[in-house]
Design a protein that fits this description.
alpha/beta, Rossmann fold, Helicase, Ruva Protein, domain 3, 2 domains, 5-stranded parallel beta sheet, 13 helices, 13 strands, globular
């Protein structure tokens, strides 16, 4: 499906993006060396999942999140994780309306199509937990009243590694609700040079790409992802990987059924980005590490990291033909 021309507030038309692959290519012009992470994040969104970006300060976490949020022209809000951030600062709450002599609900920033929660692990655990219902049910409950969130509702959270001072580890239940965890790392020398040159030459402090894809086009792409065929052998492959994770000697917690479902949904989205209508084992393998490593919990005395276990699971589990 091709996107219609996008018209800015001033009435001028910006170039339109016809396919998800073309969108990725466009965004890569301002996200130097982040092509793989960008594609994984877009796949997560198309699979109706949320994205966690974890890395050291200054490697482009917020830039990547902002570029994705603005590329579709969605309404979006940014939250900064701090120890004094309260749940009501996210969800909103009831306030007294003196004119009507009654309480009325004032929605918080979570009621946006895209929410960028920067440094989520700087927030206190109670505030982190307030996101659980929103992430899973696409709604929030305030004083017994249910308030649905927009569709789509997409959360991008960033966090610094737990070794950084002042960080609070995210609970297992919340981590399991992120479709992928991305680690950007330092860019290659050539990409870093290009990034530095662009920053020095850019007249604005932050370059934000214009919206090229309409909300309707995004929803159409998401609907097409749900029609991508997953054969029974691929389901069994995902179940075999999950079973292997649950009995792995280095792990105290393996992949949940929710993780298996999201892994296959991500595989569908990856196949769609590759312009196919069916999932191959290569698609599942391409997203496996990003989709599972944050859901694998190593034992205290384990010699392997969850990332290493994820790679081992792929190499030791038979692949369907």
């Amino acid at each position: 499906m091709r996107a219609p021309p996008h018209t800015s507030a001033a009435g001028s038309k910006t170039p339109t993006i016809a396919t998800p692959a073309a969108l990725c290519a466009q965004l890569e012009t301002t996200l130097f060396g982040k092509g793989a992470a960008l594609r994984l994040a877009l796949a997560a969104w198309l699979a109706d999942g949320h994205v966690l970006i974890e890395d050291l300060p200054g490697v482009g976490k917020t830039t990547l999140a902002r570029a994705l949020a603005t590329a579709f022209g969605f309404s979006w809000q940014r939250l900064q994780g701090t120890p004094d951030l309260l749940p009501a600062d996210i969800t909103g709450g009831l306030v007294w309306d003196a004119a009507k002599a009654e309480l009325r609900f004032v929605p918080g920033p979570i009621f946006s199509e895209v929410v960028l929660f920067d440094e989520l692990n700087r927030a206190n655990p109670k505030t982190q937990s307030a996101l659980l219902e929103a992430m899973q049910e696409r709604q929030v409950s305030i004083e017994g009243q249910i308030h649905p969130l927009p569709d789509p509702f997409l959360l991008i959270a960033t966090q610094n590694p737990l070794s950084q001072i002042g960080a609070n580890p995210l609970p297992e239940g919340q981590l399991d609700r992120f479709a992928v965890r991305l680690t950007l790392g330092y860019p290659p020398r050539a990409a870093e040079r290009q990034l530095v040159r662009h920053a020095l030459d850019c007249s604005e402090a932050v370059a934000t790409p214009p919206a090229h894809v309409t909300r309707e086009t995004f929803l159409a792409w998401r609907a097409q992802v749900r029609t991508v065929t997953v054969r029974e052998a691929l389901i069994d492959y995902a179940l075999d990987l999950a079973a292997a994770s649950r009995r792995h000697p280095a792990l105290k917690l393996g992949l949940s059924p929710r993780a298996v479902v999201q892994l296959l949904e991500l595989s569908r989205a990856w196949a769609f980005l590759s312009e196919r209508t069916f999932v191959l084992p290569d698609d599942l393998q391409a997203v496996f590490r990003a989709a599972t490593a944050h859901r694998l919990w190593a034992k205290a005395d384990a010699a392997q990291t969850p990332e290493a276990v994820a790679v081992e699971l792929l190499t030791t589990t038979p692949v369907p033909h």
